[in-house]
Structure formats: structure tokens, C-alpha cells
């Protein structure tokens, strides 16, 4: 079980172990160029490729991308169906390359609303990369942080009905063990492109002590250099996890 940032002090390194990204700005990138919004999503897939490769080379162990939120179903039907087609294409075309790069693919979210063909492709891609351990790439699809906490609560109580009769016994670990990314450490660095400064129901439990980095760049323009700028900013953060700066200095001097 991964270390909880509210229960213990997780180790920190110069390169974040887990990076979580909201890939925002595809639509605006396209509109600026008088292209349909969907062209921005297609371009966004190229940025995904660049960032996966760059993270692998820099030693990031976990990369989690918010590809489709529980709320994105509210978008125009044609945009939703283009996004679904892009997932299918990416799963069909990219899995060999991911395998060569030692990437293990996980898709996290409520799969039940996806077409059976997409569900099958997801299961196959996950199985085919299951032996890899260099970089864990998680694609959050039909994912929402509140959905995750609710499904974890239900799973926890189903596994241990006694907890409902004695709720005082419930601790963080009971619940966290059932979150959809229970196997991963909490993100060290969160990046959101596209200029908005909000979490948008992404990993809301796990972001408790994550460093939050916002950039105005649109996702299709994001690549290795922009990732390095985010890492440079991260390196200069003082991660206190509730302690004071003086405590950190004293610890370092000892
Ligand atoms: C946000 O931009 C982006 C999305 C909702 C979709 C992200 C999807 C991809 C990058 C492509 C598919 C990904 C994979 C992993 C195959 P927006 O449309 O909200 O942009 P806007 O704020 O400018 O309108």
C-alpha cells in the first residue's frame, strides 16, 4: 500500500515519482487556428506521445493523464464520439510502442458506460503491457474523483460489512485501499495546461499534498521542454507536508 501523505512523510526526489496532468486547451488551440475543436484533440494525442516518452527518459515512474472526465459526456455528441475514436485508435496503434518502452498501461474510471469494443480493447491493452514496470501510464477515462471515493466506499463496505455497524473503526487506509489507483503513490506534481486553475474533480483524494503547477500553454503545444520547466519549478518547491520551514532546515542540518 502506498504511503499516505496525511499519515506519514513520503520521500521526495528531484524528479517527481508520480506526475498527474489535466491536458486542457485542445479546443482553444484549434479555434485559434480556425480549425474544428476535434483537430485540437487529434493534435493532443501527439503531445501525449511526447510527454510519455519524456517522462520515461527522465525516470518518472507514474504518469496519470485526465483524458475524459465523468462530466465530459455533457459535450456535443460529435466531440464525445471523436474522443472515443481517438482512444480506440490510440489503443490499437500505440500499444506495441508502449510495450517497447516498458510502459504499463492502466485505464482508470467507470468503464461500464463505454462501448463493449472499447472495453475489450482496454482490457487487452492492459493485459499486454501488464509485465512492464518502467513507467505506469494511467489514462483516466470517464473518471471523477467523487465517483472514485464513492466506489471505494461501496467496495470497502461490501468487503467488510462490519465497518458499517462500527463506523468509528474506519480509517484512511480502509478506504484508500479501494481507490482505483490504490497501487500508486500519491502524485508529487500536478500539471494543468490551458490557463485554468482548478482541479476539476481529478484525483481529489490523492492530491492532498501534491504540488500544483498551472501553465497558460495549450496541451497540443506541450512537450519535453515544457515538462522540464514544470520539473524545474517542482525542484524549487519546499514540500513541508504540514511541518514548518525551520523543521525542514533542522532536519537537513542533522
Ligand atoms: C481538454 O481540452 C481535453 C480533453 C477533454 C480531452 C483530452 C484528450 C486527448 C488529449 C486525446 C486523447 C488522449 C489519449 C490518452 C489517447 P478542452 O477540449 O477542454 O480544451 P478547451 O478548454 O480549450 O476547450
UniProtKB/TrEMBL annotation:
Q: Name one Pfam family in it.
A: Prenyltransf
Per its record, how is this protein called by name?
A: Isoprenyl transferase
What note does UniProt attach to the cofactor annotation?
A: Binds 2 magnesium ions per subunit.
Q: Which UniProt keywords apply?
A: Magnesium, Metal-binding, Transferase
Q: How does it assemble?
A: Homodimer.
Q: Which organism is it from?
A: Bordetella genomosp. 2
Cofactor (UniProt): Mg(2+)
This chain's function reads: Catalyzes the condensation of isopentenyl diphosphate (IPP) with allylic pyrophosphates generating different type of terpenoids.
Binding positions (substrate): 25-29, 37, 41, 69-71, 73, 75, 192, 198-200
Protein's GO biological process: polyprenol biosynthetic process
What high-level taxonomic lineage is stated for the organism? Bacteria, Pseudomonadati, Pseudomonadota, Betaproteobacteria, Burkholderiales
Q: Does the keyword Magnesium apply?
A: yes
Amino acid at each position: 500500500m502506498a504511503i499516505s501523505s496525511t499519515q506519514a512523510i513520503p520521500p521526495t526526489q528531484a524528479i517527481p515519482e508520480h506526475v498527474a496532468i489535466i491536458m486542457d486547451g485542445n479546443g482553444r488551440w484549434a479555434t485559434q487556428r480556425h480549425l474544428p475543436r476535434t483537430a485540437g484533440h487529434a493534435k493532443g494525442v501527439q503531445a501525449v506521445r511526447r510527454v510519455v516518452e519524456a517522462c520515461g527518459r527522465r525516470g518518472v515512474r507514474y504518469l496519470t493523464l485526465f483524458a475524459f472526465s465523468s462530466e465530459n459526456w455533457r459535450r456535443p455528441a460529435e466531440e464525445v464520439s471523436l474522443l472515443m475514436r481517438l482512444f480506440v485508435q490510440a489503443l490499437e496503434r500505440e500499444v506495441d510502442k508502449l510495450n517497447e518502452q516498458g510502459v504499463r498501461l492502466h485505464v482508470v474510471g467507470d468503464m461500464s458506460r463505454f462501448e463493449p469494443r472499447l472495453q475489450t480493447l482496454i482490457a487487452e491493452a492492459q493485459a499486454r503491457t501488464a509485465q512492464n514496470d518502467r513507467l505506469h501510464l494511467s489514462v483516466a477515462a470517464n473518471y471523477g474523483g467523487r465517483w472514485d471515493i464513492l466506489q471505494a466506499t461501496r467496495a470497502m463496505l461490501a468487503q467488510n460489512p462490519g465497518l458499517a455497524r462500527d463506523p468509528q473503526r474506519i480509517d484512511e487506509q480502509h478506504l484508500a485501499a479501494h481507490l482505483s489507483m490504490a497501487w500508486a503513490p500519491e502524485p508529487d506534481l500536478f500539471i494543468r495546461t490551458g490557463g485554468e486553475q482548478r482541479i476539476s474533480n481529478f484525483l481529489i483524494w490523492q492530491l492532498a499534498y501534491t504540488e500544483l503547477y498551472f501553465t497558460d500553454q495549450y496541451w497540443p503545444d506541450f512537450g519535453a521542454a515544457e515538462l522540464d520547466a514544470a520539473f524545474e519549478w517542482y525542484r524549487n518547491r519546499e514540500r513541508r507536508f504540514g511541518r514548518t520551514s525551520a523543521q525542514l532546515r533542522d532536519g537537513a542540518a542533522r
